[in-house]
Amino acid sequence: MRSIEAAAVHAALPYGKLVQHLRVAFRSQGSQIPLRSHFHIDDPAGGAGGTLLVMPAWVPGGHIGIKAVSVYPDNAKLGLPSVIGSYLLLDAKTGAPKAIIDGVALTLRRTGCASALAADYLARRDAKQFLMVGAGSLAPHLIRAHHAVRRYKRIEVWNRNRFRAEAIAEKLSDLNASIAVVDDLEAAVRAADTISCATLSREPLVRGEWLRPGTHVDLVGGFTPEMREADDATLQRASVWVDTRAGALKEAGDLVAPIRNGALTAEQVRGDLFDLCRTDAFARRDDGEITLFKSVGSALEDLAAAELVAESVQP
To answer: Global pTM?
Structure first.
């Protein structure tokens, strides 16, 4: 069985290529995608412990994939990353293991490209200005993936910690775009054509009253019912799409909270990536429509990316 490290994963998954590969995966029939399982791991010494996430998916006659991710907040005290993940790829015909793949690199690439895939159907074709809200590890991958489908002229980065935003901006100097760090979030939201959020916020950052007609909003960071990146007004003004209905309606606070308080109904979610890719038509109804995509992550995205890695990285 091969072991494929992070550098090889990144090299095997160019953003444009992975976007197209995910499009094909969401068009396909027969894939099986159970909801991910969450397990809390106690620390007998009294520490914070951790969370284990297990995400399986398979295509009969194709491959089986299992991603295991551990989230341990106290790891920073030990000089270790808080999030560690591995991906196991198996042959679905025999069950034989084919590769174990760096799960963090795989997740970064597929998450950015899933959002870019949605934006290819939902963001205005003439979109020129992109705003990245958040400056964590996902931020540069979201920016580069979105840029692969729309070629933005100006890219702005906002973060509560300006130094982290500046560090992200420095990594983007090779892009054919104007790169700027901004401090006024409201002004940046009002000016943007596309907004991507990848934060751990529990309070809304994007306000619906700030959005101008035609904006596309991409919400990535909130992965529990308690997390919010946009307020109810944003959801009410937008045409709402998700990566998968089952996952988003159960786990995403940006949907769970407004549905719970009556600001939104599940029936108002227009569709998911399966709908977008299988119809394969530009889904924006007009240039004035506000669109919103909520991502919580799908095991199908991991499986598709892992297959591409295994095909590209020679033994």
So the answer is: 0.93
